Amino acid sequence: MASSSLPPHLDDRGYLLDNARAEAGERFVWLAELFDGVTRGHFERLGVGPGSRCWEVGAGGPGVPEALAAAVGPTGHVLATDIDPSWLATDAGYEVRRHDVAADPPPEPGTFDLIHARLVLIHVRDRAHTLATMAAALRPGGWLLVEDADTALQPLACLDDSGPAQRRASRLRDAVRELPARRGAHLSYGRTLPRALRAAGLVDVAASGTFPVGGRACDRLEAATIRHVRGEHLAAGLTDGAEIDAHLAAVEAGELDLTLAPLISAWERRPTEP
Prior knowledge:
Elements: H1 22-45, E1 53-57, H2 63-72, E2 77-82, E3 95-98, E4 112-118, H3 127-137, E5 138-149, H4 164-182, H5 193-199, E6 203-210, H6 216-236, H7 241-252, E7 263-269
Parallel strand pairs: 1-2, 1-4, 2-3, 4-5
Antiparallel strand pairs: 5-7, 6-7
Helix pairs in contact: 1-2, 1-6, 4-7, 6-7
C-alpha cells in the first residue's frame, strides 16, 4: 500500500514508502522474495483454489495478485486494489482497482472467499474500521488473512550486534522506524492481530510468525529502503549522509547479516450465518 499523497486518515505528511519512486519497485521484488512463499502457503492452507473469489488489499506489487490468479484459475476472480496501483499489471489475470481500504466502502460486500492484506494495516490510523471494512466484504465462512510486521519483537538490524558496522546498522534502523512512527504507523501492531481480529467478530483465529535472517534479499531490501527514505531522514536530522553511505557500502560488501522485523500472519473466518 503506498501513495505519494495519502488521505488525512494516514497523515498529512504522507506515507513514507510511497509507490511513486523507483525504489518502490525494488522493494516489491525483495519483499516478494522474502515473503511470497509464506503467503502462498497460507493461501493453500485456507483452501484458495479454482473458482475462489479473492481480494488483495494494498497490493503494491504484482507478486501476490499473480499467485492468487494462478490459484483460482479462469473460474475464479481476483481483485487487486491499492491507493496507487501503478505497479500492478492490467492484463495478468486479475482485476486492478484504485481503492483506499481505510476510507472507501468495501467492493462487492459479502462475496469474497479470501481477503488478504500484507504490511498494510500497520500504516493505517483507524485499524479497527479498516478490519471491519474487510470483514464486511467476506462471504459467510470466508477467510481474512492479515500479515503485519512487529519491529519491537526484534529491534536490532543484525542479530550479531558486535561490531561498529553492525551497531551503525541498528542506529540507522532506529532512524528508519522513527519517521513512520511519527506519521502514525503502529510498529508493534503485528502482535495485536489475533485480538484485533476477534474484536472484529471473526472466529477460528490463529497466527504464526516469520523471521528472515541474512541473505541477498535482506541486503537488497535494506539498500532499497535506505535509498527510498534518505532524503526525509536527512531533512529530519535523524542521521547524516556519511553514515548512510558507510552503511550502504557495508551492505554492498556483504559485511552484515541483516534481519527484518518478524512478520506476524493471522487468519480467521467470518461466521457462517444460520
